[in-house]
Specification:
single chain; Rossmann fold; seven-stranded mixed β-sheet; 32% helix; 26% strand; globular; transferase; SAM-dependent_MTases_sf; methyltransferase
Length: 221
């Protein structure tokens, strides 16, 4: 956590929709602080993000992107799965084999209750995951490549975990796409012929708060 590569904009410039918890999330300084925040937030997270002031559409749009670029028949890793919002959306689109990892035990407990996941495990996405290479057809990551969270190096780990011909779909908060080094890392992976960039479109993220993200879709070589 808290490894965003290049100097990013002040996180307090990003509209929090009046949420003190989002403000805390954007200013995290490490994994212990992040784990504590998300354990505290787990019980109200879904309600807070889906209320009228936020309109959190990122999970639904990411799941739709997975369905469009990769389909939902394969094995999917939801990296930074939180309470399972992405898993719910993927399951609604026909996915049946979804694993999830997250830093917070509290969030993982909520994700388990959704019934959308085959396996769930604790993991710090700022470090390599214990899964072997080429484990998944799709890696999806929503809400984790943002202020105070996981830096651009995560894309390399997602490539390692994805089978050749598989796909990566991730949201990157738009105001750190360039300044946080995420564009540069995606460009590097493309130049090394490790991925094909399918799209990096700007999409709604927290729609009611007028916050946008890059919907990054990559095909792994």
């Amino acid at each position: 956590m808290a490894d965003t590569g290049a100097t990013a904009p002040d996180p307090l410039d990003t509209n929090t929709g009046g949420s003190a918890l989002i403000q805390r999330a954007y200013t995290l300084t490490g994994p212990d602080e992040a784990r504590a925040l998300y354990d505290e937030w787990a019980d109200s997270y879904d309600e807070d993000l889906n209320d009228a002031s936020q309109g959190y559409v990122g999970p639904r749009l990411a799941a739709e992107t997975v369905a469009r670029v990769a389909g939902t028949d394969g094995e999917i890793l939801d990296a930074g799965c939180g309470t399972g919002l992405v898993g719910i959306e993927l399951a609604a689109l026909g996915a049946t084999t979804i694993d999830g990892v997250d830093l917070s035990p509290g969030m993982l407990a909520r994700a388990k209750a959704t019934g959308a996941y085959r396996r769930l495990a604790p993991a710090d996405l700022s470090r390599p995951l214990p899964a072997p290479a080429d484990s998944y057809d799709v890696v999806v990551c929503v809400g984790t490549l943002t202020h105070g969270h996981v830096g651009p190096h995560a894309f390399g780990e997602f490539v390692r975990l994805t089978r050749p011909g598989g796909s990566i779909v991730a949201t990157v908060l738009d105001d750190i796409w360039d300044a946080g080094g995420y564009r540069a890392e995606v460009d590097r992976l493309e130049q090394m012929a490790m991925v094909e960039v399918v799209s990096t479109d700007v999409v709604d993220y927290r729609r009611s708060a007028d916050v946008h993200a890059r919907m990054v879709a990559l095909r792994v070589a």
